[in-house]
Design a protein that fits this description.
By secondary structure, the protein is of the alpha+beta class. It is built from four helices and seven strands; from the N terminus they run E-E-H-E-E-E-E-E-H-H-H. The protein has one domain.
């Protein structure tokens, strides 16, 4: 199982672009939804966006591998279903071009606090849906030298901090901005689907959020 450990000593190499001042990485970006819609399609919209934007499995670290789900757990009760879903995704800045020294990492956790089956009437037709209260939690990092190649190099290791703090700083800052734009685009896609307020309305998803069709 992929395990992320933030490197901050002696040299910071993992940059949290959502909460840059959160040195211990305890904060999450959260979206909470309480409404009736087709739950499986929220899952599909999130999956489709990640696929279309070239994210791949952190578990295998293999470009093109879309099996980024590291946990899918359900608990059934007579009235409600509870879900825990974890996705761990990587992305290279240049499409399909593996970069040993820079990559993006997304940590995504879905948790439903109780989903119940509902029926809805739309245009005189009956459809199955879910009344659900769930929370989506996310974090995102720009990772420099993720395999610590520089730290092991007999010469580069002595200049590593200078390289990151000075020579490559403009490029790192640009990648932070690029990942932030990616992150916010993902948020807008999900909020649009869940009919939450967003700063930039998007086209209606091809999946109907209520009927699942």
């Amino acid at each position: 199982m992929f395990v992320f450990k933030k490197r901050k000593e002696p040299i910071e190499k993992d940059f949290n672009i959502v909460f840059p001042d959160d040195r211990n990485d305890t904060k999450w970006y959260e979206i909470e939804v309480l409404r009736t819609f087709h739950l499986k399609n929220f899952y599909k919209v999130a999956y489709r966006w990640l696929k279309d934007n070239d994210y791949f499995s952190a578990e295998t670290n293999s470009y093109g591998d879309k099996h980024w789900e590291t946990l899918y757990y359900e608990v059934y009760t007579p009235k409600l279903t509870y879900h825990w879903i974890w996705w761990r995704c990587l992305k290279y800045p240049r499409k399909g071009a593996k970069n040993k020294f820079l990559r993006y990492y997304l940590k995504i956790n879905f948790q439903s606090l109780g989903a119940s089956k509902q029926e809805m009437m739309i245009d005189g037709k009956k459809f199955n849906a879910n009344k659900v209260n769930f929370i989506l939690r996310m974090k995102a990092w720009v990772q420099i030298d993720p395999d610590d190649v520089w730290s092991k190099h007999p010469i580069i290791k002595y200049f590593e901090k200078t390289m990151i703090d000075r020579w490559f700083k403009p490029r790192i800052d640009q990648h932070k901005l690029d990942l932030w734009n990616d992150f916010m685009d993902f948020i807008r896609e999900l909020k649009q689907f869940a009919k939450l307020k967003t700063d930039q309305p998007r086209k209606r998803p091809f999946l109907d959020e209520e009927t699942g069709v």
